Amino acid sequence: MAVLGATLSPGAQAVTERTIRDATAVKERHEKSLFGLPAVVGVGVGASKNDASKAAIQIFVSRSLRRKERAQFPRILEGVPVDIVLTGPVQARPRR
Fold first, then answer.
1. Do 59 and 37 touch, CB atoms closer than 8 A?
2. What pTM was estimated for this model as a whole?
């Protein structure tokens, strides 16, 4: 997954390709369990929403999470921050 739309402050550094690669490896090791969490419709890797110079595992959810549900989500996996991204429902489109 490419880093799209990340805004950097003056003097900030962009997330590196190596950091994205390392975070992707962590995501792949945990992907199966992440899809078992409530409302998860996808997982990816991109710039952290808290620090665009760091990679984060992004967990895409179809709806807002209740506090109890949110508590089930990791904040960090193997040192990589985790961001939860509300996307809404996801549907496959028919092939043309």
1. yes
2. 0.81
